[in-house]
Amino acid sequence: TTVGFNSYRLRTTSTMHVATGVEARPTGKEYPLATTQDHFAIDEIGLQITEWRVGGLVREGTLEEYHETPDFAAHRVHEIDADDLWDEPEFRDYANAWGMSVDLNKCIGCNACMVACQAENNVPIVGKEQVAIGREMHWIRIDRYFVGDIAQFDDPNPESPQVANQMMTCQQCETAPCEQVCPVAATTHSEEGLNDMAYNRCVGTRYCANNCPYKVRRFNYFHNTGYIEKPENQLLQLVMNPEVTVRSRGVMEKCTYCVQRIAAARTDVRITGQPIVDGTVQTACQQACSTRAIEFGDLNDKESRVSKAHADKRAYALLSELKTKPRMRYLARVRNPHPRLSPPVHHGHGGHGPSEEHATEGGDASHAMSRPPVLYDLDTSEI
User: What's the pLDDT tens digit per position in 46-68?
Assistant: First the structure.
């Protein structure tokens, strides 16, 4: 089937839920999996650059390293003191500065955030075949990285590689590269510093997607709203969130930090005259996260949970060396494995290629964090 496998063959009237005596054996056949993590790397050089940067994308250390240097994550990438590539917004005195944080210690890669985002923001499901050719529409993806011996990356049966999950969505950059290249100003800064999209102005050049270093912008290849516009399908319109625009073909879209929920909170402020209390505005992904890995709130409120997360010594900005100044912060993962069961793997800061002298700084040259072949790089979000 298009959405899984038929399990009714394993069910009988006497064993509706549990089947015993089942024998599994390999068939020698292959089954393709739809993965999104390697999309938008248009050539081999793009893949190599990502591999070199992995130590800076997903930053982690041992408990011993954390006790010795609590801000170890900040030193994993060499930042050059240089001018910004992009123009600063004309106004910076935001009444509310909305921001987000993701704790890599808590993220388990369950994809609940992605599903919640799709339901909240009317994100179309395009199906596995379209995802496989790079036409996915979901605004959130879960990137997976693995740690182990480099010598085992070509081994089809690696010995217990460690995994790190990273939720990836629009970083809401202060100096957003996407805004600089849009010829019709369809993506601009809002009065609260968010990177907004004006769908009726977008002409679908896709310059913004090309210029986004995080690759989190999506293009509508198909008329995804066509089926609900038919008279016989009017009832289907009730499944859509009326607070969110249903986008059409040829339009770019991305995460909005659930701006419709922010707008609802502003309306309550005008009615009640009370300020927005921390925790009042929750994004759909934050609300669905079972481990509380995601925090969202006003960065101008220094007592808010998201402000405290940004001030945490484990916090780091993704691709900060590009001077995009994202509103998103990730909290580095701290591992504390039992030394007899799983020796800690030390890896480099990712600022250089694997053949250069600093590639494995802080650890043994035989170990490094890297992105292995697709065999290990499974993204089951659209399988």
Answer: 666 666 677 778 888 888 889 99
**What is the full DSSP assignment across 246-297?**
---TT-EE---SSHHHHHHHHHHHHHH-PPPPTTSS--HHHHH-TT--EEEE
**Domain locations in the chain?**
31-382
- Write the DSSP assignment of 283-310 as a string of letters: -HHHHH-TT--EEEEETT-TTSHHHHHH
- 378 against 82, higher pLDDT: 82
Cβ atoms of 96 and 300 within 8 Å: the answer is yes
pTM: 0.80
- How many CA atoms within 13 Å lie on the side-chain side of 251? 20
The C-alpha atoms of residue 43 and residue 280 are separated, in whole angstroms, by 44
User: Which one, of 218, 224, 170, 214, lies nearest residue 196 by Cα?
Assistant: 170
Question: 111 near 168, Cβ under 8 Å?
Answer: no
- Strand 333-335 relative to strand 60-62, pairing: parallel
CA distance 162 to 368: 11
Domain over 31-382 is classified CATH 3.30.70.20: yes
Pull the structure tokens for residue 337: 């494995």
- Number of other residues whose CB lies within 10 A of the CB of residue 26: 5
Secondary structure tally for the chain: helices H, strands E: 10, 13
